Amino acid sequence: MNEILRMEHISKQFGDFYANKDINFDVREGEVHTLLGENGAGKSTLMNVLIGLYQPSEGTIYLHGKKVQIDSPAEAVRLGIGMVHQHFMLVEAMTVMQNIILGDKRFKGIFIDHAARRKEILELSWRYGLNTDLEAKITDISVGAQQRVEILKALYRGAELLILDEPTAALTDIEVEGLYSVIDKLKAEGKSIIFISHKMREVLHVSDRVTILRAGKTIQTLIASETDGKELANLMIGRDLVECDYEKKESALEPVVELKNVDYNKTSKHNGLNGVTLMVRKGEILGIAGVDGNGQSQLSQIVTGVTMAEAGEVMLKGCKVGRVTAADFIDKNVSHIPEDRNRMGLVGNMTVEENLLLKSTQKCDFCDLNGWHLKKKAMRAYSEKMRAKYDIRCQGMDQEIRSLSGGNQQKVILARELEAKPDLLVAVHPTRGLDIGATRYVRDNMIAARDAGCAVLLISADFDEVLQLSDRIIVMFEGKIMGEYSGKNPPISTISLAMAGK
Amino acid sequence: MQKTKTLNILIPILSILLAFIIGMLIILLLGKNPVEAIGYLMKGAFGSKTNLANTVVRSMPLIFTGLCTCFAYRCGVFNLGGEGQFLAGSMAAITVTLLIGHEGWWVTIVAVLAGTIAGGFWGLLPGILKTWRGLNEMITTIMFNYVATLFMGFLYTTALREGSVPQTAPVPDATKIGRIISDLRITWGIVIAVVLGFAIWYFLFYTSKGFQLRAVGFNPIASSYNGLSVKKYMIAAFVVSGAVAGLGGAADILGTQFRLISGYGGGYGFDGVAIALIAQLHPLATVAVAYFFAVLRVGSTTMQVGTGVPTSVIDIIQALVIIFAVAGSSMLYLPKVKTFITNIFEKKEVK
Q1: Contact A446, A456 (CB under 8 A)
Q2: Residue B240 counted as domain residue
Q3: At B238, is the pLDDT very low, low, confident or very high (cuts 50, 70, 90)?
Q4: Which candidate, A430, A438, A30, places its Cα nearest to that of A194?
């Protein structure tokens, strides 16, 4: 088979951070080549380099054996590279036909020859089995149909190489079958496909070859028929057992929070919970392992009162929780390190001091007259104390928090949440994007909180982290609990298979 | 930080200077002497005791509508309805005054209260629409302005009309808000305005509720995660900012204008938005900028009479100040400008 694309020694650097480092990747004519990797492994960066959104820091791209410079998405389209994004790029108020011919540069002139365009599109859709009603508005058609429109759009623009970014993420099972048959037809017509996914089952089903990315590097390229889910899972997660520095504990104390058959947005595989039952005891860390987007966000929101469960029971300290707000949970001494610190944890335009005291200005330590006068001196003294205690590196307490580094921002959140002496700490991706030192610091503090009797729910997409810290491990997949494992000598290969839904 | 503070003061001042330079060029192109024109402007605004007083009188309603915008924006609520809320205040105040039929200081107090409540109510409506139905407040508040303006028309042409001229009866003398010095038109209303400016400043920066309100304004999502009731604060911001404008309307009708007539109150609301933005949403700066606007307004009339330069030139200068101030603040987000500024400040620190 002829090689259509070759990417050699691609590196992409953001500041000091390498999102891609020395990646080699090639696609042959008429094959489906899967890029497999965890979130943050560098799949999207690599594809953004390919479609001209990013310029690689190093490396070269060859198309049909010729060296090319892809400096804009328009150039990528001209070279025959089409991408179907995970979140579709369609104009919802316009019809299918209008969306497909939108931005078509081949024909110049004031008027659109609708009949000719329509004929061309219908031919394409017939050839590849991409049935769609050309006159329907995008808002009126299903997600699966929208995806067919995206594929059709790419083909209409002459794509020879199609990139499908997590194409099954939003589809129902039947729609997934439909997509598979479209992929088969595309292959039969000699089109090449780059398939991006982290789901083992479908990867094995559709791919000819699989390239595994981890931490921005290519790990290995395998022939799909010669491997199995277990090997792929192990390569993707990269498990050489990291020695565990933290002592594991088994707690038999009373549970602080309990969930019984909790449902939330049950029909969604990626943003819902389906019959989740779990509990976190005093003095233990319960780790939730799983690939991002399998209901972890929703779980964290329910145990912190940000959203309410749709069915099932939530018990906090032995009391059943009814209609609640985040404030009610905070009153019950629940602390939260949210998944997106800038959006949910911090007020970027406010100062370090103000963020440290975000929850506590109503306390009598910091105000008189029932909140009508703030004790600025006490506030400053307290925040200076926190700065020293948590080693927050900033120019001063009046510095805007958004100008701090991620690690220092996380320390501010940590200070705020841990100083409340919580009974339950919900930590979501607590070390995401942090360097080694800050990561270590955050982890040490969580262990210290546990040893002080706090119940900790750790939700993380970083499998290493879950393994190192958790006293018990629960695996989540598509909103369901796949199993519970002890944190002492956890069965790693079983857990990684469970994470893949097996 | 020191840096942001300095810039917040520097940008409006530079904008004003730049706008004046361009304004003077325009005057030059019109064939007039710009220095002379500005001289007349200053004379008009500061030339005599009466002129000084007129400027202060002129600034009063602008202070109220400016503070109205300032308060709402601090909570992330883009209330463009200062005008409608101001009118609601005036209408309620005069209606109550005329309906009571008596006169005296107690009527004044009742009327002022009625105006404040009416303004707050006029702010509450779009607030409810935003928090419960998710409607864009910029659109609804503007629509409510039209409702208020047209309802005022109904009052002075029909319901409260006095005689053949389309206007209401005046506020009785004993109900008027008193003058501070009897031969100048400055009333106690200006004292209320300035005190209110300080009160809002204190509230925003020295109370727990004000702190939480600002947090909600900057990042509602993080605020809700941290246990603040975002909806409650937004509704409160609508009501309080409306009440501030309504109080202004009451103070204006009871102290300066005395009756509703066609065209009353026009433009105060949007001037308020401009003032608050130039003042970078700082309540005390809002008071100062409102005064500056009044200087331009009062002075421009004298300038027109003295030199024949049309008052529109001053409108142009005003518009330019707004454009430069807004452009200046957003320019700070450009990466190149950012590094440039950091360089300057770091050099200073090294020295």
Answers
A1: yes
A2: yes
A3: very high
A4: A30
CB contact under 8 A, B215 and A330: no
Chain A residues whose beta carbon lies within 8 Å of the beta carbon of residue B212: 361
Q: Which domain holds residue B66?
A: 61-283
Is the pLDDT assigned to residue B313 strictly greater than 80? yes
Confidence (pTM): 0.76
Query: How many distinct structural domains can be found in chain A?
Result: 2
Query: Which is nearest to A222 in space by CA: A208, A234, A236?
Result: A208
Contact yes or no for A373 and B211 at CB 8 A: no
Identity of the amino acid at A225: S
Total beta-carbon pairs less than 8 A apart between chain A and chain B: 73
CA distance B272 to A460: 48
Question: Are the beta carbons of B218 and A400 separated by less than 8 Å?
Answer: no
Residue A330 lies in a domain: yes
Inside any domain, residue A250: no
Answer yes or no: do A191 and A281 share one domain.
Answer: no
Q: Would residue B304 count as lying in a domain?
A: no
Q: Does B350 touch chain A (CB under 8 A)?
A: no
Residue of A nearest to B206 (CA): A374
Contact A359 B227 (CB under 8 A): yes
- Yes or no: say if A318 and A297 are a contact pair by the CB < 8 Å rule: no
Give B208→chain A minimum CA distance, Å: 5
Kindly indicate whether the ipTM for this predicted assembly is greater than 0.85, answering yes or no: no
**What residues contact residue A205 under an 8 Å CB cut-off, 6+ apart?**
A180
**Residue A189 shares a structural domain with residue A216:** yes
Strand partners, A222: A210
Q: Which of A343, A367, A395 sits opposite B222 (nearest CB)?
A: A343
pLDDT digits (tens, 9 = 90+) for A421-439: 899 999 998 887 676 677 7
Same-domain check for residues A78 and A133: yes
Q: pLDDT tens across A358-383, in order?
A: 888 878 788 888 778 888 888 899 99
pLDDT at site A436? 65
pLDDT digits (tens, 9 = 90+) for B18-63: 998 999 999 999 888 888 888 988 888 888 888 889 899 999 999 9
Instruction: Please give the DSSP secondary-structure letter assigned to residue A71.
Output: -
Total domains present in chain B: 1
Nearest Cα to A49, choosing from A216, A188, A207? A216
A111 touches B: beta carbon within 8 Å: no
Give the whole-angstrom CA distance, residue A168 versus residue A161: 18
The answer to whether B1 faces chain A, any CB pair under 8 Å, is yes
Whether A400 sits inside 8 A of B224 (CB atoms) is no
Domain of A88, in residue numbers = 3-237
CA-nearest residue of chain A to B338?
A: A403
pLDDT digits (tens, 9 = 90+) for A190-200: 899 999 887 77
- Chain B within 8 Å of A214 (Cβ-Cβ)? no
Say if the Cβ atoms of A330 and B227 lie within 8 Å: yes
CB contact under 8 A, B224 and A395: no
